[in-house]
Design brief:
Elements: H1 2-17, E1 30-32, E2 36-42, E3 45-49, E4 66-70, H2 72-89, H3 92-97, E5 101-107, H4 112-123, E6 144-146, H5 151-162, E7 168-170, E8 187-189, H6 194-203, E9 214-218, E10 227-231, E11 236-237, E12 247-248, E13 253-255, E14 262-264, E15 267-268, H7 275-300, H8 305-309, H9 313-327, H10 338-369, H11 374-383, H12 386-407, E16 411-416, E17 421-426, H13 430-453, H14 463-487, H15 493-522, H16 529-551, H17 556-561
Parallel strand pairs: 2-5, 2-6, 6-7, 7-8, 15-17
Antiparallel strand pairs: 1-5, 3-4, 9-10, 11-12, 13-14, 16-17
Helix pairs in contact: 4-5, 7-9, 7-15, 9-10, 9-15, 10-12, 10-13, 12-13, 13-14, 14-15
């Protein structure tokens, strides 16, 4: 055992010293005496460094290259051979025959030329002058050779060993040509050649090859050649045969049906050619057409009592604001962009605020026109500034939208979903979006309150009743919109708001203008000054009777000090307003 340790030490020392002198070739590896000597060639180094010739040594004799890059695996193989020889020497078989094995191990440095030099040293007996012990006994030549791992080196040294028919046993050379006994009669190996290894792979498999889009899953307790082919999961792929695992597609990609490749997810938005979009756009177009027809009719009959009672110039302003609201529908359809995301809500918000502001003025005018309490009437007269009220109400909404666009600008967003990329508009701030809608709702609620108080005015010219219905439709539509908008996902989210916008627009058109158009076209007898005055006078008389019935006495103080004035519920000059003198209240 001591001899083994000494041999290992000498082997490692020789490796570190990297001796290259030809006279010290025997110290390139490790040696041990024996009755039978076995040679060994192992790549203890991975490469050699050639000697550079220059002007000073260009005529020198050739020199061996220097070994470089220590190779641990090659050293382990050499140590394994030493260990195997020592174990064999301690076996009962060799002990009973009184035979010992020896070895001479050399480093090939993974180089063919170095290996051939080693074979030359291994195959000739050492002379007296070469003997390290200066003995006159020649060194016994090798009986067999172990090595090498490289097929290239094995082919070269096998031709050298063929000359003396020294057996060579390789533990790693797999070239098929080395199986040709006519060329390499003394070569043997412990590994199958390349051809056998190739066949041993396609025939040991117990499973069919997995196609692209599948991956191998080895059955528990089975050999790795036995496996199950499983389909890749959604948004995963494999693009080669017998893949060990599937790969994940990118966030904006998805696997195809066969799971063999990834492709970009389709973009989805509320398209122009969608059936629902076509219906909504058609309704918006019809609404615009009705606006132009009504505007032309009201302009033609602008001096008639019905048009004046409906608000006169305010009617055209309302129709214009509804035009902006209908036009805003266009920006909710099609592929969104940063520009359309900013424009669509602002156009609707400002247009509908202008519309509701005009209706608010009309509601206030109705209360003022049929107000019998002179003190309240005087107060309302001072407050009633139609266009100032409209400008203030609309101006506040302009400020809200300006702050929204400046600080929390709406933008286009690509929402990545499992199977599609949804192109949508992010409002930038839900608070500002809610504030814009809430402000319109507040104005509508005020209109509703004023109009509700005037619901018992003259029937034929009762704007209050229609304002009440119009605002009620608007408020109900937007109350329903809020939970639907919050809980809806996908490309039809813009369609929800478009539906509510159309309901609000058509509600105002129906309640404010259709009835007036019907009277203008089909009930012309009611669209005269006399019919209007008669209707107002009847309302005044009934109001007077109601007051007298409730108090039991004549309201003499007010009746004597001032005339019972019924203002014309329109924006007409003072000289055209209707004034009644004292009413005859005697039975």
């Amino acid at each position: 055992m001591a001899r083994l340790d000494l041999t290992i030490l000498l082997l490692m020392l020789s490796v570190q010293l990297e001796v290259t002198d030809a006279s010290l070739t025997q110290f390139l590896g490790a040696t041990a005496p024996g009755d039978i000597i076995i040679g060994g060639l192992f790549p203890i180094h991975e490469a050699v460094t050639a000697v550079n010739f220059n002007s000073s040594n260009s005529f020198s004799s050739p020199q061996r290259p220097t070994c470089s890059r220590f190779y641990t695996k090659g050293l382990n193989q050499a140590l394994s051979m030493i260990h195997a020889v020592e174990m064999a020497n301690r076996s009962p078989v060799l002990s009973s025959l009184n035979i010992t094995l020896g070895y001479r191990i050399y480093d090939t440095c993974s180089d063919v030329t170095t290996a051939l030099w080693a074979v030359q040293d291994l195959t000739r007996p050492l002379s007296v002058c070469d003997s390290p012990t200066n003995s006159s006994q020649p060194v016994q030549p090798i009986t067999a050779l172990i090595g090498t791992s490289s097929s290239e080196i094995s082919i070269a040294i096998a031709r050298e060993l063929n000359l003396m028919l020294i057996p060579q046993i390789s533990y790693g050379s797999t070239a098929t040509i080395l199986s040709d006994k006519s060329r390499f009669p003394a070569f043997m190996r412990t590994v199958p050649n390349d051809e056998y290894q190739t066949h041993a792979m396609v025939l040991s498999k117990c499973s069919e090859s997995c196609h692209p889009g599948q991956y191998k899953k080895t059955a528990e307790g089975q050999h790795t050649c036995c496996y199950e082919c499983l389909t890749c999961a959604e948004n995963q792929y494999s693009n080669q045969t017998d893949a060990d695992a599937c790969f994940q597609c990118g966030p904006k990609s998805m696997s195809n049906v066969n799971r063999s490749e990834c492709h970009l997810k389709p973009y989805e938005y509320f398209e122009w050619n969608c059936g629902f979009a076509i219906v909504l756009l058609t309704l918006a177009a019809v609404g615009v057409l009705l606006l132009f027809l009504m505007s032309a009719l009201f302009f033609w009959k602008r001096h008639s009592p019905v048009v004046k009672a409906a608000g006169g110039p305010l009617c055209h302003l309302i129709l214009f604001s509804l035009l902006g609201s209908f036009v805003s529908v266009i920006f909710f359809v099609g592929e969104p962009s940063n520009e359309t995301c900013r424009v669509r809500q602002v156009i609707f918000g400002l247009s509908f605020t202008l519309c509701v502001s005009c209706i608010l003025v009309k509601s206030l005018k109705i209360l003022l026109a049929f107000q019998t309490n002179l003190e309240v009437k005087e107060l309302l007269d001072r407050l009633y500034k139609p266009y100032v009220i409209i400008c203030i109400c609309t101006g506040l909404q302009i400020i809200i939208c300006a702050v929204w666009l400046t600080l929390y600008t709406p933008f286009k967003n690509d929402a990545v979903q499992p199977k599609v990329i949804l192109l949508e508009c992010q409002e930038g701030s839900s608070v500002m979006f809610g504030l814009m809608l809430g402000y319109i709702a507040l104005l509508a609620l005020i209109c509703f309150t004023f109009a509700f108080k005037g619901r018992k005015l003259p029937h034929k010219y009762n704007e209050a009743k229609f304002i009440t219905f119009g605002m009620l439709i608007y408020l109900m539509a937007w109350v329903i919109f809020i939970p639907v908008h919050v809980t809806t996902n996908g490309k039809y989210v813009p369609a929800v708001e478009v539906v509510v916008i159309l309901i609000s627009n058509y509600g105002i058109l129906s309640c404010h203008f259709l009835q007036k158009c019907y009277i203008i076209i089909y009930k012309k007898e009611h669209n005269t000054k006399d019919a209007f005055m008669k209707n107002v006078y009847e309302y005044a008389r009934k109001s007077s009777e109601n007051i007298r019935g409730l108090s039991g006495t004549e309201p003499q103080s007010k009746m004597e000090n001032s005339a019972y004035i019924i203002s014309n519920p329109s924006l007409v000059p003072e000289e055209e307003q209707v004034s009644e003198p004292k009413l005859d209240t005697t039975p």
